[in-house]
Write a structure and sequence with these properties.
This protein has 289 residues and is α/β, with parallel strands linked by helices. It contains ten helices and nine strands. A hairpin with a 5-residue loop joins β7 (262-263) and β8. α4 packs parallel to α9 (223-246) and α8 crosses α9 (223-246). The longest helix is centred in the last third of the chain and has 24 residues, at 223-246. InterPro entries: Alkaline_phosphatase_core_sf (IPR017850).
């Protein structure tokens, strides 16, 4: 009989440093983590199947912590998720700045224009810079973008670039500064959500990130095996960077994820809000030794 994992209660749990590996599946993490980290691993049930949902349902009150974010959805700008111009196909009236004491926008400060992402080494370097200035009582979340696409050795983050652009230019104003007509944003989000949930669109969403050299792998391995291989490469990069950072951290350190990633299970690819299948909501909870 399948047992439902306990809930991931980020705010209520005891930790000094929480490392979030974006879009990290439990099964892949379980297979690889002990090559990089020592600790006690449990499976937890995330509150969301994509970052906007996870954030809005996790940080419901105000929390006194520092959040280093490589993900544009969690930012210091105070723009509600449902007002973002691109990539926020949800209706969550939530902004990180209203709920988290300090958000450091690594998605802005450490962005790699060539890759369309924030690389793990940049997140580790930024976290180290913060350690000397942090008060002893502060809790800190370090949010790595990987293993989330783009697959750093296989392409670039075209979709993430659009999400980042939508955060920097919220819903409405075009070249002349005019805002959308009332209701246009909501209609667009509903259209994006319906289109994005089709199997074809989800599969194409995986392919758009890849470089032309991936055609050979796709032809010999097929889509699922190719994406799984690239995903594992990204996860190893994130785990190596996490291990490097953990050596400098004192106190209770936990490694977890905001949500997982689907590779065709139950006809789902990637990750989408309010799609609560195990591959998207079962996440690791590793307490480091």
């Amino acid at each position: 009989m399948t047992t439902t994992p306990p809930d991931q209660n980020v705010v209520e749990e005891e930790w000094d440093y929480l490392v979030v590996l974006d879009a990290c599946r439990y099964d892949f993490f379980e297979e690889l983590y002990d090559e990089y980290l020592d600790g006690t691993l449990e499976k937890r049930r995330s509150r969301g199947s994509a970052t906007p949902e996870w954030a809005a349902k996790t940080f419901t009150d105000h929390v006194d912590l520092t959040y280093l974010s490589a993900n544009p959805f969690i930012n210091s700008l105070g723009i509600p998720l449902n007002e973002l111009k691109w990539g926020a196909s949800c209706e969550y009236d939530w902004a990180a700045a209203d709920h988290i004491a300090e958000v450091v926008d690594l998605w802005r400060e450490a962005w790699d224009d060539d890759l369309g992402a924030v690389v793990p080494e940049a997140v580790t370097a930024a976290a180290r810079e913060r350690l000397d200035g942090a008060r002893g009582s502060d809790r800190m979340i370090v949010h790595y973008l990987q293993p989330h696409a783009p697959y750093l050795r296989r392409g670039r983050g075209r979709k993430l670039e659009r999400i980042r652009g939508g955060v920097l230019e919220p819903e409405g104003a075009g070249e002349n500064g005019h805002r959308d007509w009332p209701g246009v944003g909501a209609l667009r989000r509903r259209f994006e959500r319906r289109l994005g949930r089709s199997q074809l669109a989800m599969a194409l969403g995986m392919l758009v990130e890849l470089d032309p050299a991936s055609v050979f792998d796709l032809g010999t391995r097929g889509l699922r095996r190719t994406i799984e291989t690239y995903y594992e490469e990204n996860l190893r990069l994130a785990l190596a960077a996490t291990s490097d950072l953990a050596a400098d951290l004192e106190g209770r350190v936990v490694v977890t994820s905001d949500h997982g990633e689907a590779f065709g299970e139950q006809d789902v690819w990637e990750h989408h809000v309010e799609t609560h299948i195990p591959t998207l909501v079962d996440v690791p909870w590793l307490v480091l030794d």
